[in-house]
Amino acid sequence: MAKEINDSNLAEVLGQDQLVVIDFWAEWCGPCRLVGPIIEELATQYEGKAVIGKVDVDSNPEASQKYGIRNIPTILFIKNGEVVDKQVGAAPKAMLEEKINQHLS
Q: What is the spatial distance between Cα 76 and Cα 82, in angstroms, rounded to a whole number?
């Protein structure tokens, strides 16, 4: 299951040694609802290899502002505290897997 990331636990999540994949989304966003189940699948698939979580932009303005999130869904790939890749807009699972695998090595 994807980790619920919020303004208060963001620093803790980013402090981990693993790749962190964050889906910035909102309940009212149609494309976000398409990506949501894919994020859940990836969280299970990469358990122990990467931290995969979700930030509700409406409830967590600080996290959204920190990364300059203007469009959703936006998925950030963060390694050692640095954004190493991002995907803006809905994307197929295969594309997200490719990005994750690229940054796991």
A: 10
Q: Report whether 59 contacts 24 (CB < 8 A).
A: no
Residue 31 structure tokens: 């494309």
DSSP 28: T
The whole-model pTM stands at 0.95
Give the CATH number for residue 34: 3.40.30.10
Sheet holding 3-4, edge to edge: 3-4, 50-56, 19-25, 74-79, 82-88
Question: 3-state DSSP helix/strand/coil percent for the chain, to nearest 5?
Answer: 35, 30, 35
> What residues are annotated to the active site?
29, 32
What range does the domain containing 38 cover?
3-104
Cβ burial of 1 (10 Å; 0-12, 13-18, 19+) is exposed
pLDDT tens track for 27-54? 999 999 999 999 999 999 999 999 999 9
